[in-house]
Amino acid sequence: MSKSGKATRQNVRVICRVRPTNAREIREGGSTCVKCGEEQIDVQSEGGNNKFNFDRVFGMESTQVEVFQESAAP
Q: Which pTM does this prediction carry?
């Protein structure tokens, strides 16, 4: 609801944040299987590739502050 008490309509945004490979995964021989674009991720596996679309994708180098500023702050 808005400050005036009236309901407001907003679209739902779907945002994806890809985390980096962690130490355990690296130690066990794991590797990165995700490629990030601005609005799409490509997941590569033995079974093939799968593409997923989002309103925004944040890659492994993104920070919590960046994600917050673009998704929650507005």
A: 0.71
